Amino acid sequence: MDVYEAVTTRRAVRGFTDRPVPGEVLERVLSGAAWAPSGSNLQPWHTYVLTGGPLAELKKRAGERLAAGDPWDEPEYEQYPPALKSPYRERRSAFGEQRYGALGIARQDMEARQRAASANWDCFGAPAALFCYIDRDLGVAQWSDVGMYLQTVMLLLRAEGLHSCTQMAWAKYRKTVAEVLSPPDELILFCGMSIGFEDVTVDYTRTGRAPLDETVTFVGD
Ligand SMILES: Cc1cc2nc3c(=O)[nH]c(=O)nc-3n(C[C@H](O)[C@H](O)[C@H](O)COP(=O)(O)O)c2cc1C
């Protein structure tokens, strides 16, 4: 698979089979992703990989919280500005309509949207997941390094025939994740990532992108 194919076939997959992901594949992918660039080579990511019993335990605990209607953990970072301005606001609502429309959920049906979103905490059925942390002393440039690292992980997963879904949703249950992983206090959970083989019976709509001239300006001859 060439890089363009890896990039264009990567998408947020929200339905996985229970086919296990071999440990050596995960190790190969994470060893490869360690070559992601970072300012001054700080490599500011810290990743926990969960499979088997520990992942089942995490899903169980998160499911219990969900069933109990437990409030989300207070955020340690802002996922979106409270008043999202244009064009981001429109892109976000277009995404919501696309994602939930594909599931036959009406725009105003917030309860059904929440129900669909709750699959996040079952990792959409995935048999493997990673949880990516960053040191709380680091700043925006290092958070951007972590983004590059995560995309590298996702592309290498494609090269292995695997799919993924990055999930900030896990930050909402970060204390439950911490119960299972016991990370040091200086780390903030940025996101989880479900990893596995796609369940091709699950319907989806491919998320679109803004026209190139909305996000890129070419200056030159
Ligand atoms: C940092 C980050 C966090 C995300 N969090 C979630 C999440 O919690 N749940 C989810 O279903 N998708 C999540 N996504 C997936 C995005 O919705 C998806 O990448 C975006 O809509 C573009 O679609 P595509 O990845 O299928 O091309 C996240 C993606 C990123 C990069």
UniProtKB/TrEMBL annotation:
Residues of the Nitroreductase domain: 8-196
Keywords: Flavoprotein, FMN, Oxidoreductase
InterPro entries: Nitroreductase (IPR029479), Nitroreductase-like (IPR000415), Nitroreductase/BluB (IPR050627)
GO terms of molecular function: oxidoreductase activity
Record keyword Flavoprotein present: yes
Protein name: Oxidoreductase
Organism: Streptomyces olivochromogenes
